[in-house]
């Protein structure tokens, strides 16, 4: 019996390995087809959007180990294959040793579920982490702009203020520090206007784009920057307050379904239950 089980285990393992090697081959050839499609495509907006996403991912990978880990896991197909094979071996061994009673169909379903999870979960988790970090950038940016307004009022230029802030706000938000550090380096290379334009295009955040637009307008028209930055922080905080109020207002509508399911129905059962039971007993007699 043991020999039959082990032979079935080996055959099943070889079939699964062949399937995954074929899948790995297809995945490795997919980037080549993707490159040819991009080269043949005349629309450049998609290429620009991919460059923006890659630049944001570079910043977040630099400041977050979780983003870099899930990015590595998402891009490394061989590692996914090894993880699935290890889990499949564990499932087979547990079934062969009798520790866990699982049929062949159940084992196949479990391995298929692991395969689907390894394909779908890493990019989803990476996207969730990146969105949360972007929201944190939006929340912390008004404090950074207040610090920049103080630096400008003390006599610093915009370039010096950006360099100073990027070195001293790592404990507040490391992502904003990396963004400002990149912007300060680009200012030294290509000027402040092009650096702000690139920052505007790189970060998909309304607050960051408002900040870049305000600085560009102040530089273009020669107006004083410090009071404009103070007004900008007020507008950002009002926007954040409106967003919180909107969430609070929508909370009542979201609570309607749980209240109906868990409060109204039990109350109806408590109120109408005794009468219904009495009627059933009368009809039974």
If you had to describe this structure to a student in words, what would you say it looks like?
- This protein is an all-alpha fold and 285 residues long.
- Helix 4 (77-96) runs antiparallel to helix 5 (104-153).
- The protein is built from ten helices and no strands.
- This is Type II secretion system protein GspF domain-containing protein.
- It comes from Budvicia aquatica.
- It is a multi-pass membrane protein.
Q: Which SSEs are present, and which pair or pack?
A:
Elements (H helix, E strand, L loop, with lengths): L1 H39 L4 H19 L1 H11 L1 H20 L7 H50 L4 H11 L5 H17 L1 H11 L3 H16 L3 H60 L1
Helix pairs in contact: 1-4, 2-3, 2-7, 3-5, 4-5, 5-6, 5-9, 5-10, 6-7, 7-8, 8-9, 9-10
Protein name: Type II secretion system protein GspF domain-containing protein
InterPro entries: T2SS_GspF_dom
Membrane topology: Multi-pass membrane protein
Please sum up the structure shown.
With 285 residues, the chain is an all-alpha fold. It has helices spanning 2-40, 45-63, 65-75, 77-96, 104-153, 158-168, 174-190, 192-202, 206-221, 225-284.
Could you say which overall geometry the principal axes of the C-alpha atoms support? flat
First and last CA, distance? 62 Å
Low-confidence segments, given as residue ranges, are: 1-7, 42-53
Mean pLDDT across all amino acids:
77
Descriptive labels:
single chain; mainly alpha; 0% strand
């Amino acid at each position: 019996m043991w020999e039959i089980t082990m032979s079935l285990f080996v055959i099943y393992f070889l079939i699964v390995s062949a399937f995954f090697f074929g899948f790995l081959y297809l995945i490795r050839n997919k980037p080549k087809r993707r490159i040819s499609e991009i080269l043949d495509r005349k629309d450049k907006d998609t290429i620009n959007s991919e460059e923006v996403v890659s630049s944001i991912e570079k910043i977040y990978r630099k400041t977050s180990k979780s983003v870099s880990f899930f990015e590595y896991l998402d891009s490394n197909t061989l590692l996914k294959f090894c993880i699935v094979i290890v889990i499949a071996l564990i499932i087979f061994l547990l079934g062969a040793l009798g520790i866990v009673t699982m049929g062949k169909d159940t084992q196949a379903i479990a391995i298929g579920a692991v395969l689907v999870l390894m394909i779908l979960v890493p990019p989803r988790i990476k996207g969730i982490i990146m969105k949360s970090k972007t929201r944190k950038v939006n929340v912390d940016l008004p404090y950074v702009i207040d610090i920049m307004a103080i630096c400008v009022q003390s006599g610093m230029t915009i370039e010096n203020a950006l360099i100073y802030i990027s070195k001293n706000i790592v404990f507040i938000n490391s992502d904003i520090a990396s963004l400002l550090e990149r912007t300060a380096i680009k200012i030294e290379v290509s000027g402040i206007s092009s650096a702000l334009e690139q920052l505007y295009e790189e970060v998909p955040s309304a607050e960051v784009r408002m900040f870049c637009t305000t600085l560009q307008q102040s530089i273009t028209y020669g107006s004083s920057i410090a009071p404009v930055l103070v007004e900008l922080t007020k507008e950002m905080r009002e926007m954040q307050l409106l967003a919180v109020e909107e969430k609070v207002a929508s909370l009542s509508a979201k609570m309607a379904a749980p209240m109906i399911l868990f409060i109204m129905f039990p109350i109806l059962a408590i109120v109408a239950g005794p009468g219904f039971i009495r009627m059933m007993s009368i009809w039974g007699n």
